[in-house]
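Exercise 4. Each item below gives a protein and its sequence. For each, produce the structure-token representation.

Item: Iron complex outermembrane recepter protein (Solilutibacter tolerans).
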Amino acid sequence: MVELKKNLLSVALLTALSMVAAPVYAQAADQDKTDAEKKKEEEAKALDTVVVTGIRGSIERSIEAKQDADSIVEAISAEDIGKLPDSSIAESIARLPGLTAQRERGRATQINIRGLSGDFATTTLNGREQASTSDNRGVEFDQYPSELMSSVLIYKTPDASLVGQGLSGTVDLRTIRPLDYSERVMNVNARYDINKIRDQKEHGNRVTFSYVDQFMDNRLGLMVGLSHMDSPQPGYQNEAWGYTDLPGYSGVQVMGGGKLYRFDNNHKRNGIAATLQFKPNDFYEGTLDVFHSKFEKTEIKTGVEFGTVWGSGTLSGTPTITGSTATNTSWTGVLPVIRMDSNPIDDKLTSLGWNNKFHFNEQWTMTLDLSSSKVDRDFRVLEAYAGVYPGGTTTANVVLDGSGDFNNYVFGTDFGNPSNIRLVDAGGWGQDGYLKDFNISDSVKALRLDFLREFDEGFLDSLEFGANFTSRSKEKSSREAKLCIVDCATPGASLAFPGSSQAFNFGGIGNLATVDANDLLNSGVYNLSGNYHADIAAKNWGIDEDLTTIYVQGNIDTDLGQMPLRGNLGVQYVRAKQNSEGYSTFAGNPGGTLVSKGTSYGNVLPSMNLSLEFASEAYVRFAAARQMARPRMDQLKAGMDVGICNDCSSSGPIWSGGGGNPTLKPWLANAYDLSFEKYFSSKAGNKGYVSLAYFYKDLSTYIYNQTVSFDYAGYPLPAPTTGQTNYPASTSGRITQPTNGEGGNIRGYEFAAQLPLDILWAPLSGLGLQATYSDTDSSIHPNGPGTTEPLPGLSKYVSNITAYYERHGFSLRYSRRTRSAFRGETKGFGADLQVIDIKPEVVQDAQVNYSFGPGVLEGLSLYLQVSNIGDEPFGTYNSGDAANRPVSFFEYGRTTLLGFSYKF
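Answer:
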């Protein structure tokens, strides 16, 4: 049945394409405008892009991009050169219909489109696929300074010419094209950054310079943008290890252990974007793009971890029980671990692109595009441990906060007094500290050749076809070591604590004795003992991919009766060749043996987008396409951990393993979209629109972990040991790994409105509302049939509302973004992927601007931005827990940006 659906979609779209191509001239109609008139309109539009600035200018350009597109898209545009509407790209994108953001460390970094996590979307810069610093394909939007972007276009439906498309959507970040401007423009933007959390403040700054100019009678254009950010991000973490049965109390759950941390983070980023555009004549146009970002993130993390039931703790006294949860308990014999961590990240991103366009005549155009995107990430996780002295144990009182979001603690030892603390393996973990050094490198190189044939008459406005070749190579490596005061075989070794007392003021702890973990490591206090384990070997892998995409697309521009009809019909063929290297581990070989494996396959991706203007500026859009998302990079890794399972088969012991799958094929879905859009303008010329959309994605294949039969022949299996009686009789066995499955769908409704309020009453000119709402459901089970966990990134409800005012130089904006509970993906223990259940959240921010008019201060704008006004925490809970017991609580504070921009 699934294969039948795929074939029907392919036949329908390909038949439609052939029907269009054959009688194209029989359905010809005269053009309404000459090429010269079109050119004048395009030039006028480009000029208007420069002149109209501020909130209204941003809204109008976004509306125009949405209205003019053949596909179903969403757009945002900069209010002015060097200034998107928000402090980050992700915050701006998250306001669009059907989109939202997942926050990490208080910042929106991952974009979820239509209920799917960032893994299912592709990000491009000026149409070119980008490398990523993560273990996967999704980019971290913090890498891209919002001040260096001119606009962002999100394709919800693909067309055949869109190479590297995602299953949920494609995000195209765009920088300035200098020849779109008619004069030199320079802009300086400076902001003072204040982050306030509880009673403490930290300060930073952001500075941007943009330069746009034209030379040689507007035949040569240059854009240079420089951006610097030094931004603090303090925060707190209060987390339960989990919940278990309370000894002596049937049916009552209690926290098995907990952790309490304070973060002192800082983000330093320097970015540059440059574009050289050369158009010496009507035959040739060349554009060279350069983008570079260096992002240094430091995280100093201090706190306490301890176990209760899952440790040495003994329940003392009578607990307070609310429902089925122990909300107030006292414990003796608790072994607290004082933690001093340092987790620096150093990211470098460089993207280059050279586009060459050749206009052979009025009908034929050829484009050759060469691009490269490369990232390099160094990521360290450093842990240093200490414990109480003497004795090592203390008492603890654990009380659930009145908010129900976290626990407060009272310990029997003053952790703020350094004399009560010693450097020691307090938790009995087998080391006095731990060191992990990760490196991720990712390189994407692409060559693209396109041809465009334009028609003066006919049903088709143009026919385009071409090919794209992309080569991608991604590697991850991990080196890990135990830190030992003497050696790791000598437990109990300790040293006097060399740190000092600092304010903590969270979770019941007033002061905490702490020391910089980097200073400890550099002082030579620790001996390093390399750690070799199957889990560590699995973090070392490399993936090589070669993708060849061939496409043909017909672009429609005609009339259906008296109604204009635009759109496209096309098909892509994507040929993939993938190979992976990784380490397979066996008993007696924890470091692993290097193995390599891969596969190749092809996919046909038909697509259709139609836009019918059935009334004045009222459109119905329909799209149908087969969409694809390549497997996660870390799922493709070769290598496995193999052992002997004695009770997995009735025939006796067999080999059993777990690992990645280098032969994985992509997620595929047959997608259908229907959208109604009405655009309008007030008498004052302020533009608005309302839209209602429905989408449906029917998955023909998706990926989840399965246990399947596997033959280990050819793998370096260990030989039987002397006297071993459970050695498998053959190489046949089983493996648990990511595998392609079938079935499931995701569907939803999206509503959006942009309303200039003077359309209701003229005196309200300058006031406006933007509102979006989406309702999404899915029957996909990411952990396989019969499971209940939702898709990562899927919130049932997402809404955004923005109220703004702009007039007489003043502009004000207030925004409120909400999303219901969802499952998210983040870095967990060991810096590996972790899936967490995130509580509903409401994020608010505001902006106040004033721009000076004609006079001495013309070109100067002052503004104030406040992000996360309500200090909305980031909280998680246990999935399926009817008592809704809290797991983790992160607090990051409110950020205020005060600054100016000057354009001259």
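Check: Residues 2-21 form the longest helix (20 residues).
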